[in-house]
Amino acid sequence: MSQVNVAIHSSQFPDAVRRDLVESLRARAVNHKFHYDSVKQTQKWLALHQIHSPSRNDEDCAAIYDAGFEVAAAGIEAKRVHLIGLGCGGGQKDTRLLRLLNNRGVDIFYTPCDVSTAMVLTARQTALSVCADENCFPFVCDLAGADDLSRAFEQRNTQHATRLLTFFGMIPNFEPEMILTKLASSVRAEDWLLFSANLAPGGDYEAGVKKVLPQYDNALTRDWLMTFLLDLGVQEDDGELRFDIEDVAELKRIVARFRFEKARAVALESERFEFRNGEFIRLFFSYRYTAELVRERLERHGLAVLGQWITKSEEEGVFLCRRRI
Q1: Contact indicator for 277, 260 with CB cutoff of 8 Å
Q2: CA-CA distances (angstroms) from residue 2 to 5, 12, 103?
Q3: What is the pLDDT of residues 9-32, one digit of tens each?
Q4: Which one, of 199, 190, 164, lies nearest residue 308 by Cα?
Q5: Percent of the chain, pLDDT > 70?
Q6: What is the pLDDT of residue 57?
Q7: Which of 104, 141, 159, 323 lies deepest, with the highest CB count within 10 Å?
Q8: 80-86 β-sheet, strand order
Q9: Is the pLDDT of residue 82 over 80?
Q10: Cα(89)–Cα(236) distance, integer angstroms
């Protein structure tokens, strides 16, 4: 087709995007959505995901997703299923799940949802190998900024379809309380949720986080994260990008901060932001959980874990959930 209809939530309208960008620069803490803002950034993310994501280079990781998909598909007795990919990325995992449902004779509908238009279109294109174009509803949305997600997913021709939400690899890049509250409010009593998280392996939580640090502190990730600053006019030699591990309440997260070693002014229309020598701006963070911490957090927000699948490396977990009655 020469054109595609893409729905855009008000959380990604220009005024909302500009407000969030200004707040990011004022707070010296970048909203993660700005790392997926352009086609260039999306392509860089897809490239590093291909190289460093366990789901792409660990056969056991792919196997746990397939095991979760099989149990979810077997548990859903409906003949119409609306798959909603929250943070769909390139759509590869969602498409595997759609193909499984389709092979079982289920009428499938798909809403790829992401903050990036380029990512949503990529996921749509991937899913078209199994899902009819008229049953695919690309949706651009900032999950952190939307308070009406469940209503936003109502499509006229998906009535009487069981909802299956996927939330793959998204939890590390949000503050847990905020995103889990939103996620739980989007899962109705009759819905299903497949949830995955990057985990810290081993029995020693801190040692486990240190072990996975190279998945973040590498050339491809640095190039991807620095694109945001470079596009604003910051120069490579203005400072240094540093990765650290920090404690936040009972959790640990990997953090990337750029330390300015030269003064630099950034202009955004009429706004001007001055970065002094020695000042930091946080570009990225990623919480690392254990399987126990994931289950505890989900249960705390009213989501019952019906099954879990953990890789042998203990670096990735998939969880099948429903709303606790």
Answers
A1: yes
A2: 10, 24, 29
A3: 999 999 999 999 999 999 999 999
A4: 199
A5: 98
A6: 64
A7: 141
A8: 7-8, 139-140, 107-114, 80-86, 162-167, 192-198, 316-323, 303-310
A9: yes
A10: 28
Q: With contact defined as beta carbons under 8 Å apart, do 176 and 144 qualify?
A: no
pLDDT digits (tens, 9 = 90+) for 180-213: 999 999 999 999 999 999 999 999 999 999 999 9
Strands 139-140 and 7-8: parallel
Please, which residues have CB within 8 angstroms of residue 161's CB and are 6 or more apart in sequence? 78, 80, 81, 82, 107, 109
Alpha carbon 247 to its chain's center: 21
What's the mean per-residue pLDDT of the chain? 93
Q: How many CB atoms neighbour CB 244 within 10 A?
A: 12
User: Where does residue 249 rank: exposed (0-12), middle (13-18), buried (19+ CB within 10 A)?
Assistant: exposed
Instruction: Supply the pTM of this predicted model.
Output: 0.92
- How many Å apart are CA 51 and CA 153, to the nearest integer? 32
Residues whose CB falls within 8 Å of the CB of residue 151, separated by 6 or more in sequence, listed in order:
none
